[in-house]
Specification:
Layout (H helix, E strand, L loop, with lengths): L3 H15 L6 H7 L5 H15 L2 H7 L3 H20 L10 H14 L5 H9 L2 H15 L8 H4 L5 H12 L3 H29 L2
Length: 201
């Protein structure tokens, strides 16, 4: 029988690999410089509504420090939107609204929240790097679009913290966290794909 830590690590890796956001058509188009300004604005507006939910997950986990950090990062996202002459608003793409609904559900549960947060946080440094590279090399945009992504180039500690929390759960609760990771990973993928087809295809 495999060690619980190895099982958890392998299971999380398998889930995230299946829904690797760097392979999503929206992020592929971003890195290749094919997104319109309107598509980037829609991302800032609608995906920003999801980003604004992140502090809720850390609050559920009673992690005041990371909750505060996420609130500060939301201010950087607001700057990102402002640099694109827009602001965070409500989701109009159904898949983005579905992501927000799923997020709120999963973030309200102490056992589901770490898995749901992990699905996003473990991918954040690499997606931030590729998006930042794209913004710098493929688009002629104000510098204000960059700080949010610069702040997330080295945020591995959040994923590590979440893994440690899941590792401490008993078997049933750990399975709930893994299921939450699956649901969040798929919802993130679908939201970005929805944005791609709504604004870029």
């Amino acid at each position: 029988m495999s060690h619980p830590t190895s099982y958890l690590k392998d299971s999380l890796s398998s889930i995230v690999s299946r829904w690797n956001l760097l392979k999503n058509p929206f992020y592929v188009a971003w890195t290749e410089g094919r997104l319109s300004r309107r598509a980037l604005q829609a991302y800032a507006e609608e995906y920003g509504a999801f980003i604004s939910c992140l502090p809720e997950g850390w609050t559920t986990l009673s992690d005041a420090e990371t909750t505060q950090e996420e609130q500060e990062h939301m201010e950087l996202w607001d700057d990102f939107a402002e640099a694109l002459d827009t602001k965070v608003g409500q989701a109009r793409v159904p898949e983005v609204q579905a992501l927000i609904d799923t997020t709120k559900e999963l973030f309200s549960d102490q056992n589901a929240a770490p898995g749901a947060l992990y699905a996003f946080e473990v991918q954040q440094p690499e997606t931030a790097r590729t998006k930042l590279d794209g913004l710098k090399t493929k688009y002629d945009l104000p510098k204000g679009v960059e700080p949010y992504f610069e702040a997330h180039l080295h945020n591995e500690h959040e994923a590590e913290k979440l893994f440690t929390r899941m590792e401490s759960l008993d078997t049933d609760k750990r399975e709930k966290a893994l299921d939450a990771c699956r649901r969040m990973s798929e919802s993130l993928w679908n939201a970005l794909e929805g944005l791609y087809f709504a604004y870029s295809a």
